[in-house]
Each structure stands twice: as structure tokens, then as C-alpha cells.
Amino acid sequence: MSRVFIIAEAGVNHNGSIELAKKLIDKASEAGADAVKFQSFKAEKLVTKNARKAEYQEVTTGKQENQFEMIKKLELDYEKHEELINYCKHKNIMFLSSPFDLQSIDLLNRLGLEIFKIPSGEITNLPYLRKIGSLKKKVILSTGMSTLGDIEKALKILKDCGTTDITVLHCNTEYPTPMNDVNLLAMNIIKDAFKIEIGYSDHTLGIEIPIAAVALGATVIEKHFTLDKTMEGPDHRASLEPEELKKMVRCIRNIELALGDGIKKLTESEKKNINIARKSIVAGRDIKKGEVFTETNLAIKRPGDGISPMRWDEVMGKIANRDFREDELIHI
After folding, report:
1. Domains in the chain, number
2. Which stretches of 5-53 are DSSP H helices?
3. In which domain, by residue range, is 22 found?
4. What is the pTM (predicted TM-score) of this model?
5. Cβ distance 39 to 15 under 8 Å?
6. Are 222 and 248 spatial neighbours (Cβ–Cβ below 8 Å)?
């Protein structure tokens, strides 16, 4: 299979600090991720002044402030974007960011991003989809809270605007996602329905679900990570810490190797075991020259460097052309 594209989702786990953002880039690069992704937005363009938080955000950041107040502190301006892009180049990892408004799409386009990641919340945003579709860049589309009908409509909009290189990520937007709501098999339903590349954006605790997604055929994996789960902020608790991220990447790379090409064949590593593990036709007792080979004087035992037991019927009834001692390989 082709190499899985692993996105380490920093999101807003930088807490508005360029220094923390750079540390997140460091850890994503060290873990071996292909890209580190942030979020681009202007609070005034994203939410109303009195929009309430999601339930999980109230749990992680309290109820004292509303959603606007919470995310306003997490904005990254043009200069910070540029600084982080340059830092990613220095660390040899791709910079990505999800735009959450039309102005942020323009910002990321001016900065030269070649891949646009559409977050789940924008899948029903017609002007947004048209704007990204018109850029004709590679698109990764998350589908949390969506039906197949929602996905179909979004894909049609993107394609009608000229975008053809699209990967769809199965996703659940609850933080953290309960295991019984993951519905991982839906990923391949999406693939079959739209004949499209698929992947998985994960919000479960731990690393086993994205690893399972790769085994099921995901070509892109996105996973939130943080420097410390105990930090203040909306997404830290449902994120991986650096060592967990590193382990997830390592496991995914192992799964890539283990999946192979699907052709059942003898591998180089196991060739040396054929004669040890397989069996041959041997003398079940001492046999004199001229005796007839029968089921009573022959046996099947290891090693496998003699006549294969698959030729048992061929050997039955043949005449011994010499004496054979018990356990000696039979020759005809």
C-alpha cells in the first residue's frame, strides 16, 4: 500500500503562544508525522458574540466565558502563520491549517498552502466550499456529524468548482469519542459510495482506533496532540501527548509494512523454515530391499527435505530399491 499521510493535529493546543506552537511542531517532527496542522480563523468571522460552547468545551474550560471569548485568545495572525510555516520548513514537516472562514481561506492561499483541510463543521457551508473548490488544490474533507447525503452534496460542490483531488475522512466530533460511536466501518462505506480516497480523523482516547483505520484502508490519519493533557484549553484532554503520538506513528508504519501487497506467496524470511516445519515420507520401521511400501511400513515425519506427503498415493505399492532404516527418508 502507499504510505499513510499522518497529520499531527496541533489545532489550538498552542493556547495562542507562538513558543508553544513551535514546541508542538518540534514534537510532531520528532514523532515522524508527515504534517502538523493548526486552525486558522478570525473569531469575529467564525462565531457570534454570544455563541455557547460545546459541552466538552464547558467541561475543559468552564462556563465563565462564551465560545467567542474562548477562541478569540487562540487566533493566529498572518505573521504568526508565516513564522510557523518557516519553522516547519526548518523542521522538515509540512504545515497545514484548517480555515474556518472565507478570510482565512484567502490567508492560507496567499501563504501557498497546497492542501486545504476542511473541518467537519464547514461541510454544509456552501460559500465556503465553493471558495475552496475554486482554488483547485488538494482537499482533505472531514465528515463528522454528517450523513452520506451531506458528503455527496459537499463533494459535488467541490468538484463542480474544479477540485478533483479529494480525500474524505470519516470522523466523529465528540471529544473524546465513545468507542461505540466510532463506527469505523463507515469509512469504507464512504469509499465504496463515492469511489474516493478515504481516511480517518480521530477523537477517541488512545491510539488503537487510528491504527485499526489504517488496517482497514485509511490513507490519511489525523490525530490531536498536545504537550501536556493537563494544560488549560478546550482540546488538551482528548489529545495525545508526545510519546503517545510517537508510538502511534510507529505502529502505523508497522501496519503499512505488515499489510503488504495482498499476494499470498512464500516470503524470503520463511524459506529457511520449509524443511524444518514440513514433513516427508520416511520409513516407519526397518524396511528390506524388495518390500512393498504400505501404510504399515511408512510414516510421515519432519524434516521436509524428502518426498512430500502430497505424493503418498504415488509411493504406495512401490518396491523398496534398497534397505531403509527406521526414520530414514524414502527414495523411489
Report:
1. 2
2. 18-31, 43-46
3. 5-259
4. 0.89
5. no
6. no
